[in-house]
Structures are given as C-alpha cells and as structure tokens.
Amino acid sequence: LNKPEWYLTQVLMWIGNHAKFLDEKIQPILDKAGSSVNAGLEFSRGLVMLILEKLAADIPCLLYDDTLFCHLVDEVLFFERELYSVHGYLSSFPSCMHILSEESCFQRWLTVEKKFALQKMDSMLSSEAAWVSQYKDITDVDEMKVPDCAETFMTLLLVITDRYKNLPTASRKLQFLGLQKELVDDFRIRLTQVMKEETRASLGFRYCAILNAVNYIATVLADWADNV
C-alpha cells in the first residue's frame, strides 16, 4: 500500500517498451483489415483498466492514513501527467481521475489538501523571511516589493490548481475552487491580524510589506480571472 509508484511506473514502462512493436507490427495488420483501432492506445487503455481495479481495491484500505493517502494521490497525478504528455493517452478514455472523483475518495482528498495547505500557511507566516522579498537586491525584478509569504501563498494556490485541473467534471473542479477561496479568505484574516499589531507603525517595514502582499495577490488574482 505504501508503494503505489511500483505498479504505476511498471505500467508506464510497459506502455513505453511496447510502443514500437505495436506501431510497427500490430498497427499495419489492423490498418490492412480496415479497422480504426489504434493498437498503442488500446494497449494503454487495457493497462489503465488494471490500474483502476487496483486503485479501487487499495483506496478503502488507506483512506484514513493521511501520509499513505497523500502519497497515493501524488503518484496518481504524476502517472496521469506522464500518460497524457508522453504517451498520448486520450481524455475520452477511462482514467485514474475518475477513481479520485468518487465521493468518499474525493471528500478525503479535499480534506487532506486543506489540512496540508493550512500547515503550509502556518509555516510560511512564521518564517523569519515571511515579510522580506526574495528579490530585494534585484531592483528590476522587484518592482512590487512582494514579501516571501505572499509569493509562497500564490504558488500554493497555483499548485492546487495544477493538481485538480484534470478532474473529469466541472462540479468537482468547483469544489476545489471553493477550497481555494477559503484559503484566500483565511490568508486575508491572517494578514489583518498581523496588520492590527502594526497599526502604531503604519510606515514601518512590516505594515508596508502587508500592503505590498495585498496588492500583489489582488493583481495575480485579476490576471487569473481569464482562466476558466
């Protein structure tokens, strides 16, 4: 259960190792018979069906172990990326995202994603470098004077988007968007709390850093507004 990468990587290897044989030996036979079947894709589809069976059996066994469950999700997402980008798998075919979209699994994924995101926010705001810009010494890069915590937070949101963008249904994607909105509001509250501590020094370093953070986040969210 703690090594899903073993069978996921094995399947990717099988697909890669058989590609030339299927393309050069099997595909011409299908073409000659007038079939529209793509040998490589059908081979991939058959192996992915085995993966789906394996996942359906494994997920109930690790649903409440955060570490194992997170590791499984990470490995499945990596597997999916490789399958589509390297091996040309079709989005109309069955995929692991359908398993991750099933109610009990999906709700657990959302819960765990939120838990780890909040932990990340705790650590980024308690860091000594939270209010310092990573690029403070490079003037042409640092026009917005973005503090480290704001940049890390937006990267966190971007990573979450990247993880859920291939979910098969809009309703599931919207639930993840709801999580992101919660996180933005949580971050806003945290900034407000820090700002209240700094009101006596409204031209102070940290107060200005908070304003820069808010401006940066608002600007980036506006840029993302075109991303359906």
From TrEMBL:
<dbReference type="InterPro" id="IPR007528">
    <property type="entry name" value="RINT1_Tip20"/>
</dbReference>
<protein>
    <submittedName>
        <fullName>RINT1 protein</fullName>
    </submittedName>
</protein>
<dbReference type="GO" id="GO:0060628">
    <property type="term" value="P:regulation of ER to Golgi vesicle-mediated transport"/>
</dbReference>
<dbReference type="GO" id="GO:0006890">
    <property type="term" value="P:retrograde vesicle-mediated transport, Golgi to endoplasmic reticulum"/>
</dbReference>
<dbReference type="GO" id="GO:0070939">
    <property type="term" value="C:Dsl1/NZR complex"/>
</dbReference>
<dbReference type="Pfam" id="PF04437">
    <property type="entry name" value="RINT1_TIP1"/>
</dbReference>
<dbReference type="GO" id="GO:0006888">
    <property type="term" value="P:endoplasmic reticulum to Golgi vesicle-mediated transport"/>
</dbReference>
